[in-house]
Every structure is written in structure tokens, then in C-alpha cells.
Design goal:
The chain is mainly alpha-helical. The chain has one domain (20-95). Helix content is 46%, strand content 9%. The protein has 5 helices and 4 strands, in the order αβαββαβαα. The strands form 2 sheets. A two-stranded antiparallel sheet has the order 1-4. A hairpin with a 6-residue loop joins β2 and β3 (58-60). α1 (20-28) runs antiparallel to α4 (76-93).
Length: 107
């Protein structure tokens, strides 16, 4: 396994956040209070596209929330716990055939 050399003064991030780790900053930057409904969450966060894999594929928060059973969350932790399997399912599905083909291309 190769180790990536340290970046010299680059602006590239050390890591790419996806899934609930990518959603957490949106929740921290808002005045959203819990309990909150899915509609309130989407409206307060402006329905961001949340990356669900390291390739940068993303899904709208409203679409991810539509796949979750409950429509109200009593806490931030409850929301993140409910969304985690949804993001994992998107990641496992690979984003479809076009994303898989794009990942195979050398450019």
C-alpha cells in the first residue's frame, strides 16, 4: 500500500467527508432546534446535496430523508442515526452504472 506524500502548501483537504460526516457541518451552522420534522430540516438547511461516497457522488437531503421512516426527529443524534443506513445504501449501490464507468476511466 502506498502512502500519499505530504502536500506542500496546497489547499487540498486532507480528507473528504461524506455521509453523515458531510451533513454535520450543515447542522452546526444553523439554528435548527429539535424536535424537528423532515420539512423543517430541509427548509432550514436549504436542501443541500450531501456527498455519499469518496468519488463526490451526492444526493439531495430531501431525497435521503424521504427514504427514512420517521418524519420527525427528537434530536440531532436521532436524525444522523436514521440517515446513516440511507447514505450507506447509496454508497453501496455505487451511484449507478454511469458512476461505475466514470470510475474506470483514467481521466
Amino acid at each position: 500500500m502506498a502512502v500519499r506524500p505530504p502536500q506542500q502548501g496546497g489547499d487540498d483537504p486532507d480528507s473528504l467527508e461524506f455521509g453523515i460526516a458531510a451533513l454535520t457541518p450543515y447542522l452546526s451552522e444553523t439554528d435548527l432546534s429539535f424536535p424537528a420534522t423532515t420539512d423543517e430540516i430541509v427548509r432550514e438547511l436549504n436542501d443541500p446535496a450531501i456527498p455519499y461516497d469518496a468519488n463526490g457522488n451526492s444526493v439531495a437531503l430531501s431525497e435521503a430523508l424521504a427514504a427514512v421512516g420517521p418524519s420527525q426527529f427528537d434530536s440531532k443524534r436521532e436524525l444522523l442515526d436514521a440517515l446513516h443506513p440511507v447514505f450507506e445504501e447509496y454508497r453501496a449501490s455505487g451511484g449507478g452504472i454511469f458512476s461505475q464507468l466514470r470510475a474506470l476511466l483514467p481521466f
